[in-house]
Amino acid sequence: MNDSIETPPVDDSLTVLSSKSIYRTDEWWKVVVRYQYEDSAAETAVYLWHRDDSEWTRKNKYVIKTKDAWETDRRVIASLLNGAMSETENEFPVSDYYHVDAGTTISKSDDWWKAIVRIDQKGSYETEEVVVYLWQNEDGQWFRRQKYAVKNWDSWDDERTAISSMLTTETSGQPDDSDESVSDRESGEDTTDTAEPVDTDIKSDLEQIGDEIEDHLSETFET
């Protein structure tokens, strides 16, 4: 299901099985990729690259371990986008440049913390982005290892469709042509307490990430 002749510039240790671009410009490329690491099971991830001179540099990677984990994240993202979540938090280890308007913890242990937040300000600029974060605790300080940002409803419709289609194809062999955007927008569902059970298996370029959140995300990325 590769939608372009050019193979996404993933790490050389990964074999790309299929991909679907969300958007691409001369400088930015966001794409859903299904890949395999050696003999491990295939995984799906959303990548964001930036072109520096002639080279693509990875900025973010969001690994989706299972379709159930994606459904949890999808519902929380939708609830934050339409302001439907009744109980939220706003204290998270995000950059001081951002102001968190609302958010919820998906999974947290002594070493790992996954949350989805709504950011209403970047410096002096107003925004309404919803961001999935994964942090790792090192010597008492939380470092970002994962980030996936949704800019607005319009971009969310495109991204949700691409990701859901890839995951459905992965599990059933057929693309998912259903449209969940209406139910996302209109449900008003409170998903504060919908964290999925964890998995102990990890693949791709990070060999081990921690039992408490492996069902959701994996990736190393410096702040």
UniProtKB/TrEMBL annotation:
It comes from the Archaea. Residues 166-223 are annotated as: Disordered. Residues 166-175 have a biased composition (Polar residues). Residues 189-199 have a biased composition (Acidic residues). This is Uncharacterized protein. It comes from Halococcoides cellulosivorans.
